[in-house]
Amino acid sequence: MCIGNSSQAAELFEAALREMDGKNWPQLEGIIKLNLAGVIARDVSFRQAIDLVDQAQERFEKGAIFLRILSCYNNKASYLCCIGQYEMAVSIVDKVILNKDTFRDSQSYTLAVSNKILMEALWGRFEEALTFIRNHKSELNPRRPDNFILEPYCLLRTGEKRACLSVMKQYQTYSLGEDDEAFYKLIKAVISMNTDRVEKAKRKMFQICRQTKNWGMLLIMVQALAYFYKQTNQNDRLVEVYEWQAMLHNHQLPDLCEM
């Protein structure tokens, strides 16, 4: 089925749930709620999405559909991360990682690894993120490095600027997304300590992530900007990015005109 936009998708999923009212199809109901949660998380509310995932998980548990429960763990952890509940998010993805050999579902495991890198970075645990990355490099897919691309940023935040630039060069030989490329330009601008470069890179990355509603990378961008503004004593801008962070946690996008 080709769905034109997220609003239409939500309407179709909600209609499907109404049709199922009273029917005992736990797996189908859970799948619909899990997909609806993804739409809601992208465009409406992380908290509403978490509630839907909990409902989906309850249905999967009723049907003893354990692989689907792993999907619930990954999705719920992502939404918790977006509202700043990093410790809880990490504890949930750790359940998926610990169950790697039990269920042998490589897709769920790979997603959990990628999720955990982002969560540790947003939590400010850069040393832990780097250790985790090094211990899981076998999971790195050169066609889609996912959140492994945060390794240079974590190196920057631990004071290893030379290593940051060196590792960034390595990742730029991989197939990176437009948002990843924009983030690397922002990192280089931060290292240069040049405010004009940072502001230009910030606007470019914001435009890309706003269009795709990549909430995770928007939060990473805000964190990187806060680091730069602290380093350069730009207190007004620092306060502003903390305001943006609060907005993002509440599923609101800052106004680009104000940036």
3D structure, described in words:
The protein is an all-alpha fold and 259 residues long. It has 14 helices and no strands. The protein has helices at residues 6-19, 26-43, 46-62, 66-82, 86-98, 100-103, 106-122, 126-135, 151-157, 161-171, 178-192, 195-212, 215-231, 235-249. α2 runs parallel beside α4 (66-82). The chain is globular. The relative contact order is 0.07.
Strand and helix layout:
Blueprint: H1 6-19, H2 26-43, H3 46-62, H4 66-82, H5 86-98, H6 100-103, H7 106-122, H8 126-135, H9 151-157, H10 161-171, H11 178-192, H12 195-212, H13 215-231, H14 235-249
Helix pairs in contact: 1-2, 2-3, 2-4, 3-4, 4-5, 4-7, 5-7, 7-8, 8-9, 9-10, 11-12, 11-13, 12-13, 13-14
User: What is the arithmetic mean of pLDDT?
Assistant: 89
Shape: globular
What proportion of the residues form beta strands (DSSP E)? under 5%
Kindly state the number of beta strands. 0
In sequence order, what are the helices and strands, one letter per element? HHHHHHHHHHHHHH
**Biggest sheet architecture:** none
N-to-C CA distance: 39 Å
Secondary structure: helix percent: over 70%
The Cα radius of gyration reads 19 Å
Q: State the secondary-structure class.
A: mainly alpha
Number of DSSP helical runs: 14
Low-confidence runs of at least 5 consecutive residues:
none
Task: Summarize this structure briefly.
The chain is mostly helical. The chain contains 14 helices and no strands.
Name the features.
mainly alpha; globular; 75% helix; 259 residues; 14 helices
